[in-house]
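Notes from hallway chat w/ T.B., transcribed later so I don't forget. T.B. wanted the structure written out for a chain they're using in a teaching module, and asked if we could keep both sequence and structure tokens in one place. Agreed to drop them here.
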Amino acid sequence: MEINTALTEKRGVSLPFTDYCDPLFADGVVFKELLGDMIEYGEKSKWKSLEFRTENPLSSIPVSFQFYGHSLDISRNEETIVSGFRDSTRRNIKKAEKEGVAVTIDRTFDSVREFYRLNCLTRKDHGLPCQPYIFFEKMYSHIIAKNLGVVILATINEINIAGAVFFNFGNRVIYKYGASDRNYLHLRANNLIMWKAIQWYCGQGYQRFNFGRTERENTGLLQFKRGWGAREYSINYYKYDFRQRAFVSDHVKVTGLHNRIFRMMPIPLLKIAGAILYRHAG
């Protein structure tokens, strides 16, 4: 798909706003045979870059940047799944239950709106602008309202303290977004949400549970995801620069000055910044 904005210039991405999307080929087709045609198209369209995001490596092409992915087999019974959890993960689930954290699985727009509130808190903590409200409206109408996803909220004393959004298609599930109120992190609600999601989708007959993309430098999130006994793999990003006529390294800095600035902003300003900037992402 083509992204064309004044801020980032024109570029091709397969596929915007996805963690990865492996190329689909008929039998006998080799990726490099099509690459020349794609580069030719990008040159004619005046693209700045062409980007591929894959789980499976593209042969003979240097990787520009890598993330981690985690995939859990949930086709087994619950007892077998739990046996693969790290001890600390099981303890955190029990702690949340002992503290009285309640979890609800929902597909209503009210749950999406409440997740949006929690997401704004989390984005501020991370020094990032909030995704636009309309983004979540579209996510609801095109995905969740069509039974292709759920919102799971964790509550204590009638206060929503954490939430997550999951998408599902075929026999697979992906943990897409997570958010929480940092004042309640000690209750380990995120662990209980993840377990209830795994448990629910397992009961619905799904087979693979994907934890989404994680930056290699994000040690805290990696530790959380590694606690569920999932298979860890690399997600490979390939970026062709039309000015250099070559695939280039594209290391992304996790933190910087902009993060500190966004962290100091009040949430209403972060919402405005997100509405302006998010359309340039992907």
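Follow-up for T.B.: The chain has two domains: 2-67+235-280, 68-232. Might be a good example for the class.
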